[in-house]
UniProtKB/TrEMBL annotation:
Organism of this sequence: Demequina activiva
Database matches in SMART domains: AAA
Underlying gene: radA
Protein name: DNA repair protein RadA
Family of the protein in this entry: Belongs to the RecA family. RadA subfamily.
UniProt cross-references to InterPro entries, sorted A to Z: AAA+_ATPase (IPR003593), DNA_repair_RadA (IPR004504), Lon_proteolytic (IPR008269), P-loop_NTPase (IPR027417), RecA_ATP-bd (IPR020588), Ribosomal_Su5_D2-typ_SF (IPR020568), Ribsml_uS5_D2-typ_fold_subgr (IPR014721), Rubredoxin_2 (IPR041166)
SUPFAM superfamilies: P-loop containing nucleoside triphosphate hydrolases (SSF52540), Ribosomal protein S5 domain 2-like (SSF54211)
Length: 457
């Protein structure tokens, strides 16, 4: 009688995201990374896992107790806003950002506030000594006896601290500095990061305490280490900010317990980091509004309306190729608006140097700021200020038409709250009710917007 044997087939796995393939390829088919697919050894053609005894009986979803998974506020309102209201027991949060952006400072602030709320906090640092962390905590006012500090780089030692302390909240700064003696490779490598993340996540899920992991980002802006870490954690937050600006933005890229449309605003100071509930003062200049080349708009970042002030300077050029310099706004968008102004409105800017910037380190990326950008450029070229108290909202098409944008009503309401008396919006789209004390102007073309908002001297 003939017997059938199972043949083993060589398998290949991506070290970044865990994608598998039957044969070697140069580029991963899941995360599109190059050179990350390596041989994973022989794999059986059939399933290797058999049924075992279930750890608990399945029950109706309505009988599951949800009180143990209620959120607990961290005390940092902007952080809670991004998380969806607070930390869920057993949740794992990955806080990613460039070195020096303020991740450790934010973590210390959250840990100190949790300790003051009678919660046991274990702060594990692998990048600095305990003395260095203590000095930073003293500088920002984050000293509390309920916060326990451990300087460790060995995974086994970290797990031992967890067993000994039994924390209500665990902070790890950072995951790239922790290594396991049972795994080959240096700290921060693919295999080490995967092992450390898996062990810590298992400990958090088993004991039911929330954990925040700090992760660095690469030059491309992605989280360093394997992409599988992002799949394992519950929440991925990106901490952003320019090196020479005090403004910091916290965005939620992934959130299993809430929305990913929220943005938290922080201000990094010498005394620590502070949440900014109303960031309008950071994005709007306080000097006179009667300066040519300045126009305000209201952008929406996630679900949050944020003001932005665009400043432009147009000067005669002595070069055959005039300069085009931008800061905080896409240069290709500026080039398109300049072309539309030249061709559709008759504002001659082809032979001039053009400089465009935003206030307070804000980054304007959405097309809803097109009209404000065009008005700032036209105002700078004509050398006449935009009408005082006016904010402009709308997208500019290549034909010169002003196209509708989303959330116009929310933007107009925010402009009224900030004290603007006139708002320019697209004529097409959903009609907007003007708030008290605000006059809403509707325009169909960029030429009409320039004639209305920038009266010639």
């Amino acid at each position: 009688m003939a017997t059938t044997t199972r043949t083993a087939k060589p398998g290949y796995r991506c070290t970044e995201c865990g994608w598998t393939a039957a044969k070697w390829v140069g580029q991963c088919g899941e995360c599109q990374a190059w050179g990350t697919v390596v041989e994973a050894g022989a794999a059986p053609s059939g399933p290797a896992t058999k049924a075992t005894v279930a750890t608990s009986a399945a029950r109706p979803i309505g009988d599951v107790d949800a009180t143990a998974s209620e959120r607990r506020a961290t005390g940092v309102d902007e952080f809670d806003r991004v998380l969806g209201g607070g930390l869920v027991p057993g949740a794992v949060v990955l806080l990613a950002g460039e070195p020096g952006v303020g991740k450790s400072t934010l973590l210390l602030d959250v840990a100190a506030r949790a300790a003051r709320a009678q919660r046991t906090v274990l702060y594990v640092t692998g990048e600095e000594s305990a003395g260095q962390v203590r000095l930073r905590a003293e500088r920002i006012g984050a000293l509390d006896s309920g916060m326990l500090l451990a300087a460790e780089t060995d995974l086994g030692a970290v797990l031992a601290h967890i067993e000994q302390v039994g924390p209500d909240l665990l902070m790890v700064d950072s995951i790239q500095t922790i290594a396991s003696a049972a795994i080959d490779g240096t700290a921060g490598g693919v295999s080490q990061v995967r092992e450390v993340a898996s062990a810590l996540i298992q400990a958090a899920k088993t004991r039911g305490f929330p954990m925040v992991l700090v992760g660095h980002v690469t030059r491309e802006g992605t989280v360093a280490g394997p992409r599988i870490v992002e799949h394992l954690v519950d929440v991925v937050c990106q901490f952003e900010g320019e090196q020479h600006s005090q403004l910091r933005l916290l965005r939620s890229i992934k959130n299993r317990f809430g929305s990913v449309d929220e943005v938290g605003c922080f201000q990094l100071l010498d005394t620590g980091i502070e949440g900014v509930a109303d960031p309008s003062g950071l994005f709007l200049s306080r000097e006179g509004a009667h300066v040519a080349g300045t126009c305000a708009t209201i952008t929406i970042d996630g679900k949050r309306p944020l003001p932005a002030e665009i400043q432009a300077l147009v000067a005669p050029s002595a070069l055959s190729n005039p300069r085009r310099a931008t800061s905080g706004i896409d240069s290709s968008r500026v080039a398109m608006i300049l072309a539309v102004l030249q061709r559709r409105v008759g504002v001659a800017v082809a032979a001039d140097d053009v400089y465009v910037s935003t206030i307070g380190g804000a980054r304007v990326t959405e097309p809803a700021a097109d009209v404000a950008l065009a008005l700032a450029l036209a105002s700078a070229r004509i050398d006449a200020p935009v009408r005082p108290g006016l904010a402009a909202i709308g997208e500019v098409a290549l034909s010169g038409a002003v196209r509708p944008v989303t959330g116009v009503g929310q933007r107009v309401a925010e402009a009224a709250r900030l004290g603007f008396t006139e708002v320019l919006v697209p004529a097409s789209g959903t009609p907007v009710d003007a708030p008290r004390g605000v006059q809403v102007h509707t325009v169909a073309s960029l030429r009409e917007a320039v004639e209305l908002a920038v009266p010639r001297p």
